[in-house]
Description:
The complex is a heterodimer. Chain A is α/β, with parallel strands linked by helices. Chain A has a single domain (2-245), classed as 3-Layer(aba) Sandwich (Rossmann fold), CATH 3.40.50.300. Chain A is 36% helix and 29% strand. Chain A has nine helices and twelve strands. Chain A has helices at residues 40-48, 72-78, 95-109, 117-130, 148-162, 178-190, 206-210, 231-239, 242-245, and strands at residues 2-11, 14-24, 29-33, 53-62, 65-66, 80-83, 90-94, 141-142, 166-170, 197-202, 215-220, 223-228. Residues 248-252 of chain A have low confidence and may be disordered. Chain B is of the alpha/beta class. In chain B, strands 5, 6, 8, 10, 11, 13, 15, 16, 18, 20 and 22 form an eleven-stranded mixed beta sheet that branches. Chain B has a ten-stranded mixed beta sheet with strand order 4-3-7-9-12-14-17-19-21-23, covered by helices on one side. In chain B, strands 1-2 form a two-stranded antiparallel ribbon. Chain B is globular and about 60 Å long. Chains A and B meet through helix 2, strand 7, helix 3 and helix 4 of A and helix 9 and helix 10 of B.
Amino acid sequence: MLEIRDLHASAGGVPILKGIDLVVRAGEVHAVMGPNASGKSTLSNVLAGRPSVEVTRGQVLFEGRDLLALPPEERAREGIFLAFQYPVEIPGVSNAYFLKAALNAVRRHRGEAELDAIEFLSLAREKMKLVEMDEKLMSRSINEGFSGGEKKRNEILQMALLEPRLAILDETDSGLDIDALRIVAGGVNALRGPARAMIVITHYQRLLDYIVPDRVHVLSGGRIVRSGGKELALELEKKGYGWVEAGPAEAR
Amino acid sequence: MAEATDVALERLRTREYEYGFVTPIESDSIPPGLDEAVVRLISAKKQEPAWLLEWRLRALRRFLAMLAEGTEPTWANVRYPKIDYQKIIYYSAPKQRKTLGSLDEVDPELLRTYEKLGISLAEQKRLAGVAVDAVFDSVSVATTFKEELEKQGIIFCSFSEAVQRCPKLVREYLGSVVPYSDNFFAALNSAVFSDGSFAYIPKGVRCPMELSTYFRINAAGTGQFERTLIVADERASVSYLEGCTAPKRDEHQLHAAVVELVALDDATIKYSTVQNWYPGDKEGRGGIYNFVTKRGACRGRRSKISWTQVETGSAITWKYPSCILQGDESVGEFYSVALTNNHQQADTGTKMIHLGRGTRSTIVSKGISAGQGQQSYRGLVRIGPKAHGARNFSRCDSLLLGDRCGAHTFPYLEVKNPTATVEHEATTSKIGDDQLFYCRQRGLSEEDAVSMIVNGFCKEVFRELPMEFAVEAQNLLGLSLEGAVG
């Protein structure tokens, strides 16, 4: 589904990613771990197409197509979803209106009929149960005054509605207490499926107790320095990032 | 700001002005120029009583004196070449049969014009619940639902007709809120005003429908000088809307209107404007100079006047809808969205003059600047010495799109009573790249994302507008309509 080859990228002229190779197949969940400033968020931003990140070398293929040639909205409509580490607030625009507009943009692209307000609301209600979200949040402005947990649940709700093929969760666990973490992870797990791939970016192993990955990659200094199965995360937890930072790259 | 953002903004900016057509209709125009003969001619055309002609002539003398002294106001934060007031045509009316028995006798070309503007005057297709007075250049060409309103004692007609039908009311209130000597443009208007709308809501009557006036400038080289007077008697209430458009032309045209509102005890007037005069082209050629004096007097106890304006058109807007809060516990409100794009300039805001005890006012101003648009909020809150316990709350938010535009805020506060409470909040923000990226990552085009964010920014004001206008206003800003959800 996703093939990243020798990816180099900079932000504000500073090189951050220095040669990433990664293959993600449909149905797989990959965890990308790494210390602060290792390039984890830059990787997610490159995949989603954030304009401020510049790709300087390499290639990203999504379903065999050149992903980097597409503007962010095209990528989203093609099925790439980024759950933001810091979801953005947009005053005066209701969550429901935003989600309906986003869903209909994606549905139009897929050749599906747009949903009207009533159809949308009943679908949204059903998906909200998944993340135990308060219905009142639908009529509030996007993320404005939401607690940290509510913002993250809102991200997962959007993912549930948009049904992406590749979901990237950028430090979705940051700022969550254990109950919120369990709810968010439950929502994510419910969305796992043979046709959907996920990249879970996290600093801590804790999230991976709830979302069990097929593969774990450790990012350091803009490169993947180690890859393995889920046990790699546990080993990392025990030994700390210092253990891999010196080690050789073991790309796959 | 990202390059892609500029492209989307460019598209938003360069959207065609939809109402720029000219109606091919023969008009009865007088030659350009301004002197006593012109004022007498206008007054004679309208068969006005002597007192009104006298009033106009006093205004003219005042205006000519100010012109000679060079006291045209220059304090506003707008720039334009000097206007030659002798080159303007002060009266132009579409030629049609003398007296109209019914709307069916209105020139079909005029009816078609209003159809094109989305205003149906024809009996069968009228907008339910909205009575419309259609003003074309210098005259009112039609007023709908007049008879229905009369059954409740409500007078809603063109200003010229009001002068004939209820001269006592007109004489009592004309110039009582905005005297002819008030300012340069008010003096000009008082001398040469040609038409406008008049509404009187009698005691205890809640006007059952929205009253509205649709102003259209058509003829070239003319100025439009309309005068609107709305009086809500004790315990009466009314909601009034006005809309405006004009053809695309390379030269500037002057629109200098005066609006006076009077609210007596326990009366409420809600006045909404969607101003979409031709803004000029991308290089700043053409467009309307919109120099308008709007003021409401809350004369009665517990009376309320609420101004809501959406200003998207005009090359230059100079306008401060204000409230004089004379009656104890009277309430004034001002909700404004102003958008300046390309080379548009706007200096707009309000004045809240608190005179009575326990008077309250609210100001919410949302300014959006794009292109090289320049925008100023100018607001005065004055609390008089007798206004015990008066309260004001002001909020001015500015949103910048791109980096070539400007937003300025000039708040003036004069508080002469120690028991008053005055609050002022102001913010300036740019549409964030983060906000845009977030929307785009969810599949929205950049253009839609910009519209959505701007729309959200204006929401507090839009929700003050009557339903039909809220829709028009959102469309005007190039925004998609927020649906039934949310």
